[in-house]
Amino acid sequence: MTIKVIRGNPTPEELAAALAVVRARAAAAASMPPGAPGPRDSWADPARIAADRLPQPGPTTWSRTYWPG
Known about the structure:
- By secondary structure, the chain is mostly helical.
- Helices cover 39% and strands 0% of the residues.
- The two termini are 37 Å apart.
């Protein structure tokens, strides 16, 4: 695996922290059994969508009743 810093000038500590995160994620992905579902993406969480999409009473409520799946 090759990692290249494109912009900025990270300190050795910042670079070590970033590499530790990348290596930990790679190790976690490698230790998962084949066929196991991956971590769920929070962007797909229905609770995130429902939290601010509840229809409020009013003349335009009908246009806000569709919840994307």
